[in-house]
Amino acid sequence: MKAKPTKLPEVLLIEPRVFGDKRGFFFESYNKIAFAAATDIQAEFVQDNHSCSARHVLRGLHYQIRQPQGKLVRVVAGEVFDVAVDLRRSSSSFGHWVGCHLSAENKHQLWVPEGFAHGFLVLSEYAEFLYKTTDYYAPEYERCIRWDDPELAIDWPLEKAPLVSTKDQAGVAFKEAELFP
Ligand SMILES: Cc1cn([C@H]2C[C@H](O)[C@@H](COP(=O)(O)OP(=O)(O)O[C@H]3O[C@@H](C)C(=O)[C@@H](O)[C@H]3O)O2)c(=O)[nH]c1=O
Description:
Family: Belongs to the dTDP-4-dehydrorhamnose 3,5-epimerase family.
CATH topology: Jelly Rolls
Keywords: Isomerase
Bound molecules: dtdp-4-keto-L-rhamnose
GO molecular function: dTDP-4-dehydrorhamnose 3,5-epimerase activity
Mean pLDDT: 98
EC number: 5.1.3.13
Enzyme class: isomerase
Radius of gyration: 16 Å
Number of strands: 13
Strand content: 35-45%
Oligomer: single chain
């Protein structure tokens, strides 16, 4: 596997080594030792999540305050535009975002560290989205920043107005959000 820094250097694009043959393909979607060697990150994943969404669904921008989660995200069916936003006030990339195309075809994964908000837009008919997290879901600490916050100005590849949950429609502005030191 290869781990490449994105324009936000702590957000990493992971490219697994894929073995294709006449039967199909095989790859290690996660290997603790290989991940640590390629990324220098000692992550302890405690939860695996799986969601499925239709085209134009946008989930995000989500994060947990006080119990932040690092996320290793990937797509096993379809394609998404996946976004991470740096919410750490002390960071030189505070308030900056990065977006990557993750698909079942390219098999790329994104490492979204603690202290970042995360969201994605579905670009295919549907997308199955899998991710590992370094801490447990804690609804009391769950926070949401609006996906279309003007200050963040994320350049989502939208074809029409996205389908957003009621919870996400009630997301707060970046400038009003509870953030990290
Ligand atoms: C995230 C999560 C949700 N749930 C429940 C709560 C709710 O009833 C239902 C759907 O939850 P949500 O609407 O929050 O699901 P969703 O919008 O898919 O939330 C996810 O979005 C992406 C962008 C992330 O980054 C994730 O960390 C997570 O916040 O599932 C859990 O039981 N455990 C979990 O870990």
